[in-house]
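User: My advisor, Dr. K., asked me to get a structural model of this assembly before our group meeting. I'm new to this, so sorry if the format is off. These are the inputs:
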Amino acid sequence: MVEKTIGKTKDDSNSLDNKLIVSLSPHIRSDESVRGIMGDVIIALIPAMIASIYYFGFNAFKLILITTISAVCAEAFIQKLFKKPIRVNDLSAVVTGILLALNLPAGAPWWMAVFGAFFGIIVIKEFFGGIGSNFMNPALGARAALVASWPSLMATYTFPDAVSSATPLQILKEGSGSLPTIQQMFIGNIGGVIGETSAALLLIGGVYLVIRKVIDWKVPTIYIGTTALMLLLLGVDNSQIIYHILGGGLMLGAIFMATDYSSSPVTSKGKIIFAIGCGLLTALFRVKGNLPEGVTYAILIMNVASPLIEKLTKPKVFGEVK
Amino acid sequence: MDLGKLTFKGGASIPEFKELTSKNPVEVLKSPKIVYIPLHQHSGSPCEPLVNVGDVVKIGQKIGSSNAFVSSSIHSSVSGVVKEISTIYTPTGIKSKCVVIENDGMDEMIESIKERSLEYYKREEIISTLKEMGIVGMGGASFPTHVKFSPPEDKKIDILIINGAECEPYITADHRLMLENTKDIVSGIKVAMKALNTEKAYIGIEDNKPDAIEAMKKELAGEKNIEVAILKTKYPQGDEKRIIDAITNRKVPLGGLPMDVGCVVSNVATIKAINDAILKGKPLYERIVTVTGSVNNPKNLLVRIGTPIEDLIEACGGFKGKPGKIIIGGPMMGIAQFDLKTPIVKGSNGVLVQALDEIKNEEVLPCIKCGKCIDVCPSRLEPLFISSYSLKDNYSKCDELNALACVECGACSYICPAKRPLAESIKIAKREITAKRKKS
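Assistant: The format is fine. Below is the predicted structure of the whole assembly, which you can bring to the meeting.
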């Protein structure tokens, strides 16, 4: 007597070919979307992009454009090749492209930008399963590859007027040259990769991401805090700490790279351990390492440690007695 | 003890849509021409029919019973003639025997329905009467109340929690009940306290129902042992273990029951049914159902058990637009129905119609590991991992990750930006794990 289709309803026009949709609950979904989250990250990066274009001029604009287009093309190409659905409209490749550009010096040649984008998307992201499965941050991985391949090109920081300038951290490391003012450090106009120039505008982006609940405020805060503390422990002078915090890739890395979903632990305790680890390593590399900068390798190493951290920080199930 | 803004860790805030019906007083739905009363409306053993085709029955007459302890009697909700003993799918998808009764429209009550005062009852007598009167949990799982009220000797129940949270979006049946039957609820709480031999009771209500909180507080003025606990509006605040946590700060152990921490939780509608059964001699044959969503006039209706859902929809002015899904219960935990003849049972608190054009069929994307599902899980599980194992049929791994602690609230699927079927796949894993455990 029970039929799989509904009988005639009173008003026949109201029936859906006499069939109803059946599925498991829940029957409503939030407005959250992958595209929306990536869109938020892009919005948060706009102030930093404006700063980079303002201080480094057309070169910065060109780099952002090249890496973004290359990243999207690389993703579409490899997904087509792997016969996977083409999902460039989730905007994740755009985020990778922008982040990569922000991690390049203004004078980087176009082919290096293209290579970096292809390497990041194809080797680091898609070879390991694509969005959500990559164990490293694609933009940072690409930067590391570029630094390893063309170390001098990646360490030549030029302004639009072709004046090359040392970064504040280089000046600190070598102990020669004149440091910019703290105000400059905060607002911008310092040597370095194009994205790290203005701490203030990076922070605005970070606050936006926290408000939009895209990232956990604890990660960048703990990362930066740990770095400062560790630097002090390693004997760095009080007066230099502020240069370490505002200079180099720390702000950019802490806000936009260490909070990458895929390559950091998914548990909230794990995220904290991850941030502490990043901070310790950054300080250690900056003080004891050969290079003035340490953020890239600190985050990459913690990326690799993430699965382990995740395993060790499984949340205690409600009512579980251990 | 501060009894305001109580809550638990995790959960999600979900648009409520309760304004569709929260101001509509309960209307009595005309009894239908034919009722389809399933004999399996509760957790536990199904009932066997006590009537034959052709028998004349009255309202409240027992038409099904079982000797099993975990079961509850079934009563006729109309007066009339038994037309058929057939088989039907209940709203929960159980295939059950069903007594089909043609209503004679006389609404004749069975003679035994008469008032009785609580003092004349012994504790054991209340418990046995609850089974006789067919009282089961009316908040969802339909667990027989007499079983819940009979904890083993060594489990002393010192707190009774009345669940008036009603955290499911859209549903307002309990809200209206608390406003319109406040007295019955209070006297029902006293019956339940006597049955459980419990000194203390709290009625937990989410703070999105200030009028219900006010009404209950007013009615409870002067009662020392029954208090209103105001809960933060958050899904799934009404989940049994979460409401115990919020109000008493006691954590039901993993795999345990509320009685393990000295608590019993009963829904407000159940308490009203207990009151009616014990003090008025009225078995459970009708309940309040919120009919809402894409119907022309959303309403709260008092419905006889066994009324087909099409009658409810008709009483609410019919479908608004093309119907896509018809859900018994709320949008988070309710069950989509395939047949408009499916009857309302004791556990049906709502009928939600979703129009075809409001059902988004969104593409499932790869997990981006944002961790939002972990943040909202009231059981503090890791839905993304359990789900991925479940989708690969690796159920023993799901078991290791405590899939069975999932309460199927659906918050993870709701929040997921990649629109992954998290709760859906975990439910499947739970079923497989339970089936395997039964076998071995």
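One thing worth pointing out at the meeting: The radius of gyration of chain B is 21 Å.

User: Perfect, thanks a lot.
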